[in-house]
Design goal:
Rossmann fold, binds zinc ion
């Protein structure tokens, strides 16, 4: 699925107004085959959802009958109520997320966003009132032309019948978390978000959206900002769990 022709075809499909070419796989733009389903057989075989049981805190694979993963057991509490992810981050999923974020292929948000909505319907707890995307710094958003979390939020929110609220803003540019050591990530995002009074989350159950949950520092900082702004509860939904 990652042939050069496939990548070019996928990019062209994206340029065509962000819509999928009918009968083409939304991931590789290859032929769909006759088996049905939303992906071509190659992609369907490569994209594997997170296994059951899932960690009640972070949405990753739970280690045992404890219902939480080893990482959450070590950390203790998370600054959100509950997190749900669709895929384990790696292989094809990493490639998809990179194409969405850095490869100029925003149309991939449709496929991922819909799978995120379905994962929430299956594994989420409680009924959120609003969907809030993790914001990009305005300069990065300008350079990229879009915020991938916003696109995912729009798709997932539409499928879940919820409004999207741009309730957070990034107050400064930060280094990419993935480029930093684990112990420097928390400091990198400390105080980086501010709430926007115009888009109040007071008394609301917020579903916070991003592409990937890795250490959870970025999402945790955003969740704390939403709680400070009066959110009743914050849950997290991501396409992948690193
Ligand atoms: Zn495909
Ligand atoms: Zn966990």
């Amino acid at each position: 699925m990652q042939t050069k022709d496939g990548m070019v075809a996928a990019r062209v499909a994206g340029w065509l107004g962000g819509f999928f070419v009918p009968d083409a796989c939304p991931v590789c733009a290859g032929a769909m085959g006759t088996a049905g389903g939303e992906l071509c057989p190659d992609c369907a075989g490569l994209l594997v959802e997170l296994p059951e049981p899932r960690c009640a805190h972070c949405g990753g694979a739970a280690d045992s009958a404890l219902e939480v993963c080893g990482e959450c057991l070590r950390i203790g509490t998370r600054p959100w109520r509950h997190a749900v992810s669709v895929f384990a981050y790696g292989g094809v999923t990493r490639d998809l997320v990179h194409r969405l974020k850095y490869g100029g292929q925003p149309y991939l948000a449709r496929f991922l966003g819909r799978r995120m909505a379905r994962a929430w319907s299956l594994h989420g707890t409680g009924v959120p009132d609003v969907v809030v995307p993790i914001p990009l710094h305005w300069w990065r958003r300008l350079r990229r032309g879009y915020n991938q979390a916003e696109l995912l939020a729009r798709e997932a929110a539409e499928a879940l019948g919820l409004p999207v609220l741009p309730a957070l803003v990034r107050t400064r540019a930060t280094r990419r978390q993935a480029l930093l050591d684990i112990d420097r990530r928390q400091a990198n995002v400390k105080g980086v978000f501010a709430s926007r009074p115009r888009w109040s989350v007071r008394g609301r159950h917020v579903l916070l959206l991003d592409d990937v949950l890795t250490t959870g520092h970025t999402l945790g900082e955003a969740a704390r900002t939403l709680h400070t702004a009066g959110a009743l509860a914050v849950s997290v939904l991501t396409a992948a769990r690193g």
